[in-house]
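Okay, any thoughts on this one?
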Amino acid sequence: MTEAAPTAYLRWMAEGHEYFLACLKELDDERLEGPSALPGWTGRHLLSHVGHNARALSRLAHWAATGEPTPMYASPEARVEEIAAGAAWPVATLRDFVVAEQDRLGTALAGIAQTGWDAPVVTAQGRTVPARTIPWLRCREVWIHACDLPDGGDFTAFPGDFLDALIADALDRRRSVQSLPLTVRVTDRDARPADTAGECVEGRAADLARWLTRGAAAPDLRTTSGAPLPQLPAWL
C-alpha cells in the first residue's frame, strides 16, 4: 500500500528552516566571518553547507519524481569543494542562497507524486532509502545547524515531537552503524527505554538529543549505573 506524503517531516522541515533563519537574523555579517560551533568552519562555511545541502536534496527529489538517477553529490570531494567555494562568497550572497535553495527544495518535493514517496534514492552516505526520507534529512540539517551558528540556537527550542524522532534516529544509528549498546530514558516525558541493552543514559529530551548528535554532555545527563557518560564518536 502506498503511504501518503510525510506530513510531519515536511512540517518539521518548514519550521526548522524558519528557526534557522531566525537565529541567522540575530547575527551580523562580521560575526559570520568568525568560527562556528563546527571545528574548522566559519559561519560562512556553515551557510554554504546548509544551502548546498538543500540543493543536493533537490537532486534526490528530482530522482524520486522522474526516475532519473541524480546523486546528491558527484563525489565526497565534490561536496567538500562546493562548501569551500561557497564559503568564499559574500555573506549577503550566502544569506540569500540559503533561502533560495530551501525554496527550490520545497518546489522539488512538491513535484513528487503520491507513488513517488516510496521511490528509492541513495543518500550521500550510500544508503538506499525511500524518498519520504528526504525531508527528514533536511529537518536534521536545519534544526541542528541552527545550533552550530555562532551564538546560535539551542535544542530546547526544538518541537517535542521532533526531539523524540531525532533521539530515536540518532539512537538507531549509534546502535546499528556504530554498534554502541545504548539505551536512553527521557525524564521530562513519560517515555521509557525500549529495552535494557547496554548502558542507560537519562535526562531531558533536549539534552539527550544534543548529546546523541553532538556528543555534548549536559550537567543533568547521567547513567543509571553511575558510570561516566560514554564517549561518542561523530554521529554522521
Remarks:
- The mean pLDDT is 93.
